[in-house]
């Protein structure tokens, strides 16, 4: 990649920084929940229209899809993606752009993702006669809740017409100092499934154990059995076909509405199952149900298991990620490009990564000196806004070197 082109991209990112900062702060101040991003989408569309960038609105109601034609020899199409939804969190930051929508906050940085993508599109549109690939872009709703806006936009044809050959996604990373970015080849983020289990018993007076079947005891036995199988012995994961499949099974909710002397009729459990192997994922689902049925038989009752299948695991294409790492080093310097560890968190960009060669990377947004260190999904999350210039420029730079 030519140094002159890199400098041109850096200059454009710098020149447009104040505008992107204003865009991000507007989005941050006006957050909307998943699949309700009506004003957010309208605002993003207005910016694209102002810049003369071709796009369509109303995809999965609030999604946006657009296109920038590359140079005359461009044959491949690169997809750039950002998400738009916020979280049901009350913001505690004291900043001019604090959320104006009570109980809703951009606590996962989707305002940053959207602003950075807009910044990248501004640069790419300005340099489109030199672009070696065509650019397709998507601003998607509902990343935070199942079934995930990415999956719905794929069903609506976002990866076709024209056919998408590769894709990039970017995510804020408050644990990484601003100025740095991170990449990981291969398996990066886990699949995610929601588990809802109802343990049925027989209620009664606590002083009369012969007359009740205590669902709290049954639930406890089930929790310990599943924990032992999945998180202690890991006997199933040691089978050759499931080897090296990182796994988490965790329950965060147990509710039995009894009292000191009242045994409830049922106990409800809610948890999550995450892994990075689709065959093991399917096998694990079966084992959860088999274990529950076995314990139910022992106690002469029944246990209802509902598994809501969520996002698949996210895999970064090795070749595309290698190219992205080299490009990022040219753009930011070797010392500012880091290797990421695998994460058991999930992302609906995974749906895209399962369909086309993809690279999902992290943008450093923290600043210890400025005390910008709060994690995502917290009421004090914020970013060092210098990351907006870096995120916009890097995404544009990656597009130029993606062919």
Features:
10 helices; about 35% helix; Aminopeptidase; about 25% strand; 2 domains; about 400 residues; alpha/beta; 16 strands; Alpha-Beta Plaits; 8-stranded mixed β-sheet; 4-stranded antiparallel β-sheet; elongated; single chain
Describe this structure in words.
The protein is elongated, with a radius of gyration of 24 Å. Strand 1 (55-59) and strand 2 (63-68) form a beta hairpin. Helix 4 (110-126) packs across helix 10 (386-400). The protein starts with a helix and ends with a helix. The protein has 2 domains: 3-188 and 313-400, Aminopeptidase; 193-309, Alpha-Beta Plaits, CATH 3.30.70.360. The chain has 10 helices and 16 strands. The chain has helices at 3-15, 17-29, 38-50, 110-126, 149-155, 215-233, 278-298, 318-332, 350-353, 386-400; strands at 55-59, 63-68, 77-83, 134-140, 166-177, 181-183, 186-189, 193-200, 204-205, 247-255, 262-263, 266-275, 303-309, 314-316, 337-339, 358-366. The chain is α/β, with parallel strands linked by helices. The strands form 4 sheets. Strands 1-2-4-3-5-16-6-15 form an 8-stranded mixed sheet, with helices on both faces. A 4-stranded antiparallel sheet has the order 10-12-8-13, with helices on one face. A two-stranded antiparallel sheet has the order 7-14.
């Amino acid at each position: 990649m030519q140094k002159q082109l890199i400098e041109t991209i850096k200059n454009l990112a710098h020149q447009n920084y104040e505008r992107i900062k204003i865009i991000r702060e507007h989005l941050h101040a006006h957050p909307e929940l998943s699949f309700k991003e009506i004003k957010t989408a309208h605002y993003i569309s207005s910016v694209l229209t102002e810049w003369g960038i071709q796009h369509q609105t109303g995809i999965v109601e609030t999604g946006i899809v657009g296109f920038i034609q590359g140079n005359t020899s461009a044959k491949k199409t690169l997809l750039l993606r950002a998400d738009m939804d916020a979280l049901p969190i009350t913001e505690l930051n004291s900043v001019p752009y604090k959320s104006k929508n009570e109980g809703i906050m951009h606590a996962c940085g989707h305002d940053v993702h959207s602003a950075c993508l807009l910044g990248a599109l501004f640069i790419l549109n300005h340099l489109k006669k030199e672009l070696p690939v065509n650019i397709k872009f998507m601003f998607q709703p509902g990343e935070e809740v199942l079934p995930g806006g990415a999956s719905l936009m794929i069903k609506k044809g976002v990866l076709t017409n024209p056919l998408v050959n590769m894709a990039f996604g970017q995510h804020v990373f408050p644990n990484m100092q601003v100025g740095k970015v991170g990449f990981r080849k291969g398996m990066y983020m886990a699949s995610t499934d929601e588990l809802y289990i109802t343990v049925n018993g027989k209620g009664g007076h606590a002083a009369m154990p012969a007359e009740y079947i205590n669902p709290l005891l049954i639930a406890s036995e089930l929790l310990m059995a599943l924990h032992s199988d999945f998180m202690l012995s890991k006997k199933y994961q040691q089978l050759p076909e499931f080897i090296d499949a990182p796994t988490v099974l965790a329950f965060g909710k147990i509710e039995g509405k009894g009292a000191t002397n009242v045994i409830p009729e049922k106990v409800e459990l809610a948890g999550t199952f995450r892994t990075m192997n689709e065959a093991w994922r399917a096998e694990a689902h079966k084992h959860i149900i088999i274990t529950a049925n076995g314990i139910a038989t022992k106690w002469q009752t029944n246990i209802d298991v509902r598994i809501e299948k969520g996002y698949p695991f996210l895999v970064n294409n090795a070749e595309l990620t290698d190219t992205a790492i080299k490009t990022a080093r040219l753009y930011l310097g070797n010392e500012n490009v880091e290797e990421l560890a695998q994460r058991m968190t999930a992302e609906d960009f995974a749906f895209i990564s399962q369909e086309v060669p993809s690279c999902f990377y992290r943008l450093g947004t923290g600043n210890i000196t400025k005390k910008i260190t709060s994690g995502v999904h917290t009421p004090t999350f914020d970013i060092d806004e210098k990351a907006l210039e870096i995120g916009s420029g890097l995404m544009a730079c990656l597009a130029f070197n993606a062919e």
